[in-house]
Amino acid sequence: MTDETPNERIQELTDSLARTQADYANYRKRTEREREQYKQRATQHLITDVLGIIDHLELALTQKTASAEDLAHGVELVLAQLLSTLEDHGVERIPTEAFNPQHHEALLTEASDEPKGAILEVMQHGYTLGGAVLRTAKVKVSQGPENKNE
């Protein structure tokens, strides 16, 4: 048995509860702050990588005397750099070999010699991040060969 009175015990438990609540509130604030710092660092890495791409685009804009062919080649190089940067950050282009309604949106269909459901044309590429679809690929899909008996 202890020499504590019931009022002293109540006060001790009340103080303990107040400390626990304060500790929990501090924990929540700290984890939220850490989460924001992590997000900012992740964004900072992506932005730093994109700044190099911006530099190349600005350089291309200064090339007033470049031929259309040279300019197109420069844009292709910058696009490759951008796709590589996105890939480094976990973004992947959705493959377009076979139609998959979870990854592709059929904007048009057309009769063709290709089997039904084959992708004939990619109108806009789709992308995933960590397996989650960021944007579906917009495609033209084959209806299969035209039936000439009709």
Q: SSE layout and pairings?
A:
Blueprint: H1 6-62, H2 68-88, E1 91-93, E2 104-111, E3 119-124, E4 127-129, E5 132-135, E6 137-144
Parallel strand pairs: 2-6
Antiparallel strand pairs: 1-4, 3-6, 4-5
Polypeptide structure, described:
This protein is an alpha+beta fold. The chain folds into two domains: 1-89, Hemagglutinin Ectodomain, Chain B; 91-150, Head domain of nucleotide exchange factor GrpE (Nucleotide Exchange Factor Grpe, Chain A, domain 2), CATH 2.30.22.10. The protein is built from two helices and six strands. It has helices at 6-62, 68-88, and strands at residues 91-93, 104-111, 119-124, 127-129, 132-135, 137-144. The strands form two sheets. A three-stranded antiparallel beta sheet has the order 1-4-5. Helix 1 packs antiparallel against helix 2 (68-88). The chain starts with 5 loop residues before the first helix and ends in a 6-residue tail after the last strand. The relative contact order is 0.09. The model has no long low-confidence stretch (mean pLDDT 91).
